[in-house]
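Homework help thread (please don't just give me the answer)

Our assignment gives two proteins as sequence + C-alpha coordinate strings and asks us to describe the second one. The first is just a warm-up. Here they are:
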Amino acid sequence: MGVVVRNLQKVVPLRRARLRKDVDTLRHILGIQKFDLGIICVDNERIQQINHIYRKKNVPTDVLSFPFYEELRPGKMPCPLYRDELNLGDIFLGVEFVMKQYKNESIDLHGALTVVAAHGICHLLGYRHETEEEWTEMLQKENYILNEYNRLTGRHLEPLMKRCSHDR
Protein backbone atom coordinates (compact mmCIF):
# COMPACT_ATOMS: atom_id res chain seq x y z
CA MET A 1 0.00 0.00 0.00
CA GLY A 2 2.77 2.50 0.81
CA VAL A 3 1.49 6.03 1.38
CA VAL A 4 -2.19 6.84 1.13
CA VAL A 5 -2.94 10.56 0.84
CA ARG A 6 -6.53 11.68 1.37
CA ASN A 7 -7.54 15.28 0.87
CA LEU A 8 -10.66 15.92 2.96
CA GLN A 9 -10.48 19.71 2.71
CA LYS A 10 -11.43 22.15 -0.04
CA VAL A 11 -9.95 25.36 1.37
CA VAL A 12 -6.43 25.03 -0.05
CA PRO A 13 -5.54 23.67 -3.52
CA LEU A 14 -3.31 20.66 -2.96
CA ARG A 15 -1.26 18.43 -5.23
CA ARG A 16 -1.60 14.99 -3.64
CA ALA A 17 0.86 13.33 -6.04
CA ARG A 18 3.60 15.77 -5.04
CA LEU A 19 2.90 15.30 -1.33
CA ARG A 20 2.91 11.50 -1.76
CA LYS A 21 6.26 11.69 -3.59
CA ASP A 22 7.76 13.88 -0.87
CA VAL A 23 6.54 11.55 1.89
CA ASP A 24 7.92 8.56 -0.05
CA THR A 25 11.30 10.32 -0.10
CA LEU A 26 11.08 10.80 3.68
CA ARG A 27 10.22 7.10 4.10
CA HIS A 28 13.25 6.16 1.96
CA ILE A 29 15.55 8.34 4.09
CA LEU A 30 14.31 6.65 7.26
CA GLY A 31 14.40 3.13 5.82
CA ILE A 32 10.69 2.60 6.50
CA GLN A 33 9.51 1.95 2.93
CA LYS A 34 7.98 -1.41 3.89
CA PHE A 35 5.62 0.32 6.34
CA ASP A 36 2.34 1.85 5.24
CA LEU A 37 1.19 5.20 6.49
CA GLY A 38 -1.77 7.46 5.92
CA ILE A 39 -1.68 11.20 5.32
CA ILE A 40 -5.04 12.89 5.79
CA CYS A 41 -5.29 16.56 4.80
CA VAL A 42 -7.96 18.52 6.65
CA ASP A 43 -9.15 22.09 7.18
CA ASN A 44 -8.99 24.10 10.41
CA GLU A 45 -12.43 23.03 11.58
CA ARG A 46 -11.66 19.30 11.28
CA ILE A 47 -8.16 19.46 12.80
CA GLN A 48 -9.53 21.55 15.69
CA GLN A 49 -12.21 18.91 16.34
CA ILE A 50 -9.61 16.13 16.36
CA ASN A 51 -7.23 18.17 18.53
CA HIS A 52 -10.04 18.85 21.01
CA ILE A 53 -11.09 15.19 21.20
CA TYR A 54 -7.62 13.65 21.51
CA ARG A 55 -5.50 16.36 23.14
CA LYS A 56 -8.16 18.45 24.92
CA LYS A 57 -6.94 21.54 23.03
CA ASN A 58 -9.78 23.33 21.27
CA VAL A 59 -7.60 25.06 18.66
CA PRO A 60 -6.46 24.18 15.15
CA THR A 61 -2.89 22.90 14.72
CA ASP A 62 -0.51 21.90 11.95
CA VAL A 63 -0.15 18.16 12.54
CA LEU A 64 -1.58 15.34 14.65
CA SER A 65 -0.07 11.85 14.57
CA PHE A 66 -1.71 8.59 15.54
CA PRO A 67 0.95 5.86 15.76
CA PHE A 68 0.17 2.20 15.18
CA TYR A 69 2.99 1.35 17.60
CA GLU A 70 2.12 3.55 20.57
CA GLU A 71 4.93 2.30 22.83
CA LEU A 72 7.74 2.63 20.25
CA ARG A 73 10.90 4.22 21.64
CA PRO A 74 12.72 6.89 19.61
CA GLY A 75 15.36 5.41 17.33
CA LYS A 76 13.83 1.91 17.42
CA MET A 77 12.13 0.28 14.46
CA PRO A 78 8.83 -1.54 14.82
CA CYS A 79 9.06 -5.34 14.74
CA PRO A 80 5.84 -6.50 13.12
CA LEU A 81 4.91 -10.13 13.57
CA TYR A 82 2.32 -10.20 10.78
CA ARG A 83 1.98 -8.54 7.39
CA ASP A 84 -1.00 -6.47 8.50
CA GLU A 85 1.22 -4.91 11.18
CA LEU A 86 3.39 -3.23 8.52
CA ASN A 87 1.73 0.06 9.37
CA LEU A 88 3.15 3.13 11.07
CA GLY A 89 -0.14 4.95 11.60
CA ASP A 90 -1.86 8.07 10.34
CA ILE A 91 -0.87 11.72 10.17
CA PHE A 92 -3.47 14.47 9.96
CA LEU A 93 -2.12 17.61 8.30
CA GLY A 94 -3.91 20.87 9.05
CA VAL A 95 -3.37 22.21 5.54
CA GLU A 96 -5.31 25.44 6.10
CA PHE A 97 -3.42 26.07 9.35
CA VAL A 98 -0.06 25.40 7.69
CA MET A 99 -0.90 27.72 4.78
CA LYS A 100 -1.87 30.58 7.09
CA GLN A 101 0.95 30.03 9.58
CA TYR A 102 3.79 29.88 7.07
CA LYS A 103 2.60 32.17 4.25
CA ASN A 104 5.06 34.87 5.35
CA GLU A 105 7.99 32.44 5.49
CA SER A 106 10.32 31.78 2.57
CA ILE A 107 8.79 28.33 2.11
CA ASP A 108 6.05 27.24 -0.26
CA LEU A 109 2.99 25.32 0.92
CA HIS A 110 4.23 21.92 -0.30
CA GLY A 111 7.62 22.50 1.32
CA ALA A 112 5.91 23.39 4.61
CA LEU A 113 3.68 20.29 4.32
CA THR A 114 6.76 18.13 3.75
CA VAL A 115 8.40 19.54 6.88
CA VAL A 116 5.23 19.07 8.90
CA ALA A 117 4.89 15.50 7.54
CA ALA A 118 8.49 14.80 8.64
CA HIS A 119 7.52 16.01 12.12
CA GLY A 120 4.49 13.73 12.07
CA ILE A 121 6.54 10.74 10.94
CA CYS A 122 8.94 11.35 13.84
CA HIS A 123 5.95 11.07 16.18
CA LEU A 124 4.92 7.80 14.49
CA LEU A 125 8.45 6.55 15.18
CA GLY A 126 8.23 7.27 18.90
CA TYR A 127 9.71 10.77 19.12
CA ARG A 128 8.07 13.25 21.50
CA HIS A 129 8.74 16.77 22.73
CA GLU A 130 7.29 16.83 26.23
CA THR A 131 10.66 17.64 27.84
CA GLU A 132 13.72 19.64 26.80
CA GLU A 133 15.68 16.41 26.28
CA GLU A 134 12.95 14.89 24.08
CA TRP A 135 12.64 18.14 22.15
CA THR A 136 16.39 18.17 21.44
CA GLU A 137 16.35 14.52 20.36
CA MET A 138 13.40 15.09 18.02
CA LEU A 139 14.92 18.25 16.56
CA GLN A 140 18.14 16.33 15.81
CA LYS A 141 16.12 13.64 14.02
CA GLU A 142 14.19 16.21 12.00
CA ASN A 143 17.44 17.97 11.08
CA TYR A 144 18.89 14.67 9.86
CA ILE A 145 15.79 13.81 7.82
CA LEU A 146 15.51 17.23 6.20
CA ASN A 147 19.24 17.53 5.51
CA GLU A 148 19.06 14.21 3.65
CA TYR A 149 15.88 15.31 1.89
CA ASN A 150 17.59 18.55 0.82
CA ARG A 151 20.63 16.62 -0.43
CA LEU A 152 18.43 14.32 -2.53
CA THR A 153 16.08 16.99 -3.89
CA GLY A 154 18.08 20.22 -3.97
CA ARG A 155 15.52 21.89 -1.70
CA HIS A 156 16.36 23.96 1.39
CA LEU A 157 13.87 22.86 4.03
CA GLU A 158 14.51 23.08 7.77
CA PRO A 159 12.58 21.92 10.82
CA LEU A 160 9.70 24.12 11.87
CA MET A 161 10.45 23.14 15.49
CA LYS A 162 13.31 25.64 15.52
CA ARG A 163 10.65 28.32 15.72
CA CYS A 164 8.05 26.46 17.77
CA SER A 165 7.44 25.93 21.44
CA HIS A 166 7.46 22.56 23.16
CA ASP A 167 3.67 22.59 23.31
CA ARG A 168 3.00 21.73 19.66
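The one we have to describe:
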Amino acid sequence: MWLMVFSVPLLPAIVMVSSRCRVRVAALCHRALTWALRLVRGTACVRSTHAFVFSRCTHGKADSVLETFDLYADTHPSLHISPHTAEAVDEVMRRVRPSRVLELGMHCGYTSVRLLRLLPPAGTLVTVEIDPHTAELGEEIILVAGFKHSQFQVLTSSSAEAIPSLCPVLEPDQGTSEGFSLVLMDHDPQRYLPDLLALQREKLLSPSGCSVLLIYRNRRAEGPREILDHIRARPDYYAIKSELQFMTEVFYQKSRDVTVCF
Protein backbone atom coordinates (compact mmCIF):
# COMPACT_ATOMS: atom_id res chain seq x y z
CA MET A 1 0.00 0.00 0.00
CA TRP A 2 2.74 2.45 0.96
CA LEU A 3 4.44 1.76 -2.38
CA MET A 4 1.32 2.83 -4.25
CA VAL A 5 1.09 6.00 -2.16
CA PHE A 6 4.63 7.05 -3.07
CA SER A 7 4.28 5.96 -6.73
CA VAL A 8 1.17 7.98 -7.59
CA PRO A 9 2.94 11.40 -7.57
CA LEU A 10 5.65 9.96 -9.81
CA LEU A 11 3.25 8.68 -12.47
CA PRO A 12 3.40 11.83 -14.69
CA ALA A 13 7.21 11.71 -14.72
CA ILE A 14 7.21 7.99 -15.50
CA VAL A 15 4.76 8.49 -18.35
CA MET A 16 6.82 11.41 -19.72
CA VAL A 17 10.10 9.42 -19.68
CA SER A 18 8.36 6.43 -21.25
CA SER A 19 6.90 8.66 -23.99
CA ARG A 20 10.29 10.21 -24.73
CA CYS A 21 11.88 6.76 -25.00
CA ARG A 22 9.18 5.66 -27.41
CA VAL A 23 9.71 8.80 -29.50
CA ARG A 24 13.46 8.24 -29.66
CA VAL A 25 13.09 4.56 -30.53
CA ALA A 26 10.54 5.44 -33.21
CA ALA A 27 12.87 8.09 -34.63
CA LEU A 28 15.77 5.63 -34.77
CA CYS A 29 13.59 3.01 -36.45
CA HIS A 30 12.39 5.59 -38.97
CA ARG A 31 15.97 6.59 -39.80
CA ALA A 32 17.02 2.96 -40.22
CA LEU A 33 14.02 2.23 -42.45
CA THR A 34 14.65 5.36 -44.52
CA TRP A 35 18.29 4.39 -45.01
CA ALA A 36 17.36 0.83 -46.01
CA LEU A 37 14.72 2.02 -48.48
CA ARG A 38 17.13 4.56 -49.95
CA LEU A 39 19.74 1.83 -50.41
CA VAL A 40 17.28 -0.56 -52.09
CA ARG A 41 15.80 2.18 -54.29
CA GLY A 42 19.28 3.42 -55.21
CA THR A 43 20.41 -0.05 -56.30
CA ALA A 44 17.20 -0.61 -58.27
CA CYS A 45 17.52 2.82 -59.87
CA VAL A 46 21.10 2.14 -61.01
CA ARG A 47 20.09 -1.21 -62.53
CA SER A 48 17.04 0.12 -64.36
CA THR A 49 18.89 3.22 -65.57
CA HIS A 50 21.75 1.11 -66.88
CA ALA A 51 19.42 -1.27 -68.69
CA PHE A 52 17.51 1.62 -70.30
CA VAL A 53 20.62 3.53 -71.42
CA PHE A 54 22.50 0.43 -72.58
CA SER A 55 19.63 -0.78 -74.76
CA ARG A 56 18.55 2.56 -76.28
CA CYS A 57 21.66 4.70 -76.77
CA THR A 58 23.97 4.68 -79.79
CA HIS A 59 27.06 2.83 -78.62
CA GLY A 60 30.31 4.75 -79.06
CA LYS A 61 28.55 8.14 -78.94
CA ALA A 62 28.93 10.02 -75.64
CA ASP A 63 26.26 12.60 -76.50
CA SER A 64 23.78 9.83 -77.29
CA VAL A 65 24.48 8.21 -73.91
CA LEU A 66 23.82 11.51 -72.11
CA GLU A 67 20.65 12.17 -74.10
CA THR A 68 19.36 8.69 -73.24
CA PHE A 69 20.05 9.32 -69.55
CA ASP A 70 17.98 12.51 -69.77
CA LEU A 71 15.21 10.65 -71.62
CA TYR A 72 15.08 8.10 -68.81
CA ALA A 73 14.95 10.85 -66.16
CA ASP A 74 11.91 12.39 -67.85
CA THR A 75 9.72 9.48 -66.77
CA HIS A 76 11.66 7.65 -64.01
CA PRO A 77 13.34 8.48 -60.69
CA SER A 78 17.00 9.04 -61.42
CA LEU A 79 20.20 9.50 -59.43
CA HIS A 80 22.08 11.56 -62.00
CA ILE A 81 22.47 15.32 -61.69
CA SER A 82 19.84 17.69 -63.12
CA PRO A 83 20.26 19.32 -66.56
CA HIS A 84 20.88 22.69 -64.90
CA THR A 85 23.65 21.26 -62.72
CA ALA A 86 25.06 19.35 -65.68
CA GLU A 87 25.36 22.57 -67.69
CA ALA A 88 27.15 24.21 -64.75
CA VAL A 89 29.61 21.30 -64.58
CA ASP A 90 30.26 21.63 -68.33
CA GLU A 91 30.91 25.36 -67.92
CA VAL A 92 33.50 24.73 -65.21
CA MET A 93 35.18 22.01 -67.29
CA ARG A 94 35.49 24.33 -70.29
CA ARG A 95 36.80 27.19 -68.15
CA VAL A 96 39.27 25.20 -66.04
CA ARG A 97 40.33 22.78 -68.82
CA PRO A 98 41.68 20.22 -66.35
CA SER A 99 43.95 17.38 -67.36
CA ARG A 100 43.30 15.30 -64.24
CA VAL A 101 39.87 14.99 -62.66
CA LEU A 102 38.76 13.13 -59.53
CA GLU A 103 35.11 12.12 -59.14
CA LEU A 104 33.88 10.93 -55.75
CA GLY A 105 30.55 9.16 -56.23
CA MET A 106 29.98 7.51 -59.60
CA HIS A 107 26.27 6.65 -59.38
CA CYS A 108 25.14 5.58 -62.88
CA GLY A 109 28.17 6.90 -64.79
CA TYR A 110 26.32 9.94 -66.16
CA THR A 111 28.64 12.57 -64.72
CA SER A 112 31.68 10.44 -65.55
CA VAL A 113 30.74 10.56 -69.24
CA ARG A 114 30.12 14.32 -69.08
CA LEU A 115 33.56 14.87 -67.56
CA LEU A 116 35.39 12.54 -69.93
CA ARG A 117 33.96 14.05 -73.08
CA LEU A 118 35.40 17.47 -72.13
CA LEU A 119 38.85 16.26 -71.10
CA PRO A 120 41.82 16.79 -73.46
CA PRO A 121 43.07 13.72 -75.38
CA ALA A 122 45.78 13.05 -72.78
CA GLY A 123 43.47 13.80 -69.83
CA THR A 124 42.48 11.21 -67.24
CA LEU A 125 39.53 10.69 -64.91
CA VAL A 126 39.70 8.80 -61.62
CA THR A 127 36.27 7.94 -60.25
CA VAL A 128 35.61 6.41 -56.83
CA GLU A 129 32.46 4.40 -56.06
CA ILE A 130 31.85 2.48 -52.85
CA ASP A 131 29.27 0.02 -54.24
CA PRO A 132 30.86 -2.71 -56.41
CA HIS A 133 27.73 -3.32 -58.49
CA THR A 134 27.23 0.39 -59.19
CA ALA A 135 30.92 0.73 -60.08
CA GLU A 136 30.67 -2.20 -62.53
CA LEU A 137 27.58 -0.83 -64.27
CA GLY A 138 28.97 2.71 -64.34
CA GLU A 139 32.22 1.51 -65.89
CA GLU A 140 30.26 -0.34 -68.57
CA ILE A 141 28.36 2.86 -69.40
CA ILE A 142 31.67 4.73 -69.78
CA LEU A 143 32.91 2.08 -72.21
CA VAL A 144 29.59 2.15 -74.09
CA ALA A 145 30.07 5.91 -74.49
CA GLY A 146 33.25 5.19 -76.45
CA PHE A 147 36.00 5.85 -73.91
CA LYS A 148 39.01 3.58 -73.33
CA HIS A 149 40.42 2.24 -70.11
CA SER A 150 43.53 4.36 -70.71
CA GLN A 151 41.37 7.46 -70.22
CA PHE A 152 39.84 6.59 -66.86
CA GLN A 153 40.19 4.47 -63.75
CA VAL A 154 37.40 3.21 -61.50
CA LEU A 155 38.29 2.59 -57.85
CA THR A 156 35.78 0.46 -55.93
CA SER A 157 36.17 1.57 -52.34
CA SER A 158 35.10 4.24 -49.91
CA SER A 159 36.52 7.71 -50.45
CA ALA A 160 38.31 7.46 -47.09
CA GLU A 161 40.16 4.35 -48.32
CA ALA A 162 40.73 5.59 -51.86
CA ILE A 163 42.24 9.02 -51.20
CA PRO A 164 45.42 7.84 -49.41
CA SER A 165 46.08 5.43 -52.31
CA LEU A 166 45.79 8.04 -55.08
CA CYS A 167 49.34 9.39 -55.00
CA PRO A 168 50.76 6.47 -57.05
CA VAL A 169 47.93 6.99 -59.56
CA LEU A 170 49.18 10.51 -60.22
CA GLU A 171 52.45 9.50 -61.82
CA PRO A 172 54.47 12.51 -62.99
CA ASP A 173 53.79 13.20 -66.63
CA GLN A 174 56.70 14.66 -68.60
CA GLY A 175 58.45 15.89 -65.48
CA THR A 176 55.42 17.57 -63.89
CA SER A 177 53.95 16.68 -60.51
CA GLU A 178 50.58 18.39 -60.67
CA GLY A 179 47.70 16.97 -58.70
CA PHE A 180 44.04 17.05 -59.60
CA SER A 181 42.94 20.35 -61.09
CA LEU A 182 39.24 19.49 -60.68
CA VAL A 183 37.48 17.41 -58.02
CA LEU A 184 33.76 16.64 -58.13
CA MET A 185 32.12 15.42 -54.92
CA ASP A 186 28.77 13.69 -55.32
CA HIS A 187 28.94 10.97 -52.69
CA ASP A 188 28.06 11.13 -48.98
CA PRO A 189 27.82 14.82 -47.95
CA GLN A 190 29.03 13.88 -44.49
CA ARG A 191 32.33 12.94 -46.15
CA TYR A 192 32.78 16.21 -48.06
CA LEU A 193 34.81 18.02 -45.41
CA PRO A 194 36.89 15.01 -44.21
CA ASP A 195 37.69 14.12 -47.82
CA LEU A 196 38.63 17.68 -48.75
CA LEU A 197 40.98 17.80 -45.76
CA ALA A 198 42.42 14.40 -46.74
CA LEU A 199 43.02 15.54 -50.33
CA GLN A 200 44.80 18.61 -49.04
CA ARG A 201 46.80 16.61 -46.49
CA GLU A 202 47.90 14.08 -49.13
CA LYS A 203 48.87 16.97 -51.47
CA LEU A 204 46.55 15.68 -54.19
CA LEU A 205 45.11 19.09 -55.11
CA SER A 206 47.06 20.97 -57.74
CA PRO A 207 49.03 23.72 -55.94
CA SER A 208 48.57 26.00 -58.94
CA GLY A 209 44.79 25.80 -58.45
CA CYS A 210 42.01 23.25 -58.16
CA SER A 211 38.26 23.69 -58.61
CA VAL A 212 36.22 21.59 -56.20
CA LEU A 213 32.58 21.05 -57.17
CA LEU A 214 30.23 20.18 -54.31
CA ILE A 215 27.00 18.57 -55.52
CA TYR A 216 23.95 18.73 -53.23
CA ARG A 217 21.07 16.28 -53.22
CA ASN A 218 19.71 17.91 -50.05
CA ARG A 219 20.84 21.48 -49.41
CA ARG A 220 19.61 21.33 -45.81
CA ALA A 221 21.86 18.39 -44.90
CA GLU A 222 24.55 18.94 -42.28
CA GLY A 223 27.48 18.03 -44.56
CA PRO A 224 27.19 20.99 -46.98
CA ARG A 225 26.86 23.50 -44.14
CA GLU A 226 29.89 22.05 -42.37
CA ILE A 227 32.22 22.21 -45.36
CA LEU A 228 31.07 25.70 -46.40
CA ASP A 229 31.68 27.01 -42.88
CA HIS A 230 35.17 25.53 -43.02
CA ILE A 231 35.86 27.08 -46.43
CA ARG A 232 34.67 30.55 -45.44
CA ALA A 233 36.88 30.45 -42.34
CA ARG A 234 40.04 29.82 -44.42
CA PRO A 235 40.36 32.46 -47.15
CA ASP A 236 44.10 31.72 -47.44
CA TYR A 237 43.24 28.33 -48.92
CA TYR A 238 39.78 28.62 -50.47
CA ALA A 239 37.46 30.96 -52.31
CA ILE A 240 33.84 30.30 -53.26
CA LYS A 241 33.55 31.06 -56.98
CA SER A 242 29.85 30.32 -57.45
CA GLU A 243 26.86 29.00 -55.50
CA LEU A 244 23.94 27.42 -57.30
CA GLN A 245 20.92 25.66 -55.88
CA PHE A 246 22.49 22.21 -56.12
CA MET A 247 26.19 22.95 -56.68
CA THR A 248 28.93 25.11 -55.20
CA GLU A 249 32.27 25.71 -56.89
CA VAL A 250 35.21 26.19 -54.53
CA PHE A 251 38.65 27.23 -55.72
CA TYR A 252 41.67 25.92 -53.83
CA GLN A 253 45.15 27.36 -54.15
CA LYS A 254 48.13 27.09 -51.85
CA SER A 255 51.37 28.56 -53.19
CA ARG A 256 53.43 27.00 -50.40
CA ASP A 257 52.53 23.47 -51.60
CA VAL A 258 55.28 22.98 -54.17
CA THR A 259 55.29 19.18 -54.44
CA VAL A 260 52.50 16.69 -54.92
CA CYS A 261 53.53 13.14 -55.75
CA PHE A 262 56.74 11.45 -56.75
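TA reply:
I won't write it for you, but here's a hint about the kind of observation we're looking for: Residues 1-8, 26-42, 256-260 have pLDDT under 50 and may be disordered.
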